[in-house]
Amino acid sequence: MVLLGCTGSIGVNTLEVAKKFNIDVEVLVCGKNIELLNKQLLQHSPKVVVVADANDVHKVNHSNVLWGSESILKVIQDSESELVVNALVGFLGLRPTLSALDAGKKVALANKESLVACGNFIDTSKIQPIDSEHFGLWYLMQDRPVQKMIITASGGAFRDWDINKLQNATLADTQKHPNWSMGQKITIDSATMVNKMFELLEARWLFGEGEYDSIIETKSLIHALIDFKDGSTTAHFAHASMQLPIAYALDEKMNEKILEHVDLLKVGSLEFREITTDRYPIWEIRKELLKHPSRGVVVNAANEAAIEMFINKEIGFMDISKTIIKAFEKFTQMPSSVDDVFEIDAQVRRVVRENR
Fold first, then answer.
1. Where are the alpha helices (DSSP H) in the chain?
2. Considering the entire predicted model, what is its pTM?
3. pLDDT greater than 80 at residue 356
4. What Å distances lie between residue 277 and 203, 284, 322, CA to CA?
5. Residue 181 pLDDT more than 80?
6. For residue range 25-62, what is the model confidence (pLDDT) as tens digits?
7. How many Cβ atoms sit within 10 Å of the Cβ of residue 142?
8. Residue-range domain boundaries for the chain
9. CATH topology of domain 2-130
10. How far apart, in whole angstroms, are the C-alpha atoms of residue 166 and residue 13?
11. What confidence score (pLDDT) does residue 182 get?
12. How does DSSP assign 57-75, residue by residue?
């Protein structure tokens, strides 16, 4: 396989699963964590390695090291692997997804932004999502009429905060996730609930038109539920580990134990909460966005630009959602091609930054 984003949490777990199932790793693509990359190279023997920065090439303990986004596209096209695991973060992961699909490869996708921004132009039959929520929905699917698909949210770092204090939340505050440790951007997205909005959009592209919603489940043991038209509901329980969806992405016939079962007696009880717009303002545009999922490119671009400004202390935490909503109301055009997606993305980022 080709692994994009090998030093992030998804990448690390993917290599653990690959090691367990003796899957060859042909290519490793890394950002800035060269120290961890070198440790990974001791256990895996890829033919080629790609890093983000030319200045890091000499630091990598490998004889065939390339750098830059164009090199990522080249190694995907040149690789013999049938599977590309895309665990890159952000819009920069879109071109590699498109490149892999153009090359006829299957994509195990952890890069949410690919479907959020460009879902209308991606053949989802070639996509296997590496996401516990979409994996849960897929796992629950039966040949029965569905009324609603539901994914769960943790609530993020501020689910228990006094709402009046949210405007003063710092970057460090956003990183205090109640259930687990993730990368900086996705943890911010969890705090704003943008991450869950993205996952609803992904579900829409993966499973087609229908009713989609999300609720908070504070222990993160239920990842998805399906309401069937007959009045019954099924739920997917599993401990929060990305290794389960990754394992199925790497081996469709999965017949080995990956996780320990959830012991409901030890769990004792579960708590569910509604996602409200006073704590998560972004939820105001959920229904409109799901009606017009092609406008996901606007939401993603505005979000990435707003997060950059928040990190630079140019705007406050609650301004992230305000910025996204304002852009969503301003940019109403639908992309008619992949080129349009990239053009709208650039326009939105430019306008957001000019109006900060």
1. 9-20, 34-43, 69-78, 94-102, 112-118, 132-140, 171-174, 184-192, 194-207, 243-250, 264-267, 286-291, 296-311, 318-330, 338-354
2. 0.94
3. no
4. 21, 6, 12
5. no
6. 999 999 999 999 999 999 999 999 999 999 999 999 99
7. 9
8. 2-130
9. Rossmann fold (3.40.50)
10. 33
11. 79
12. GGGSSSS-EEESHHHHHHH
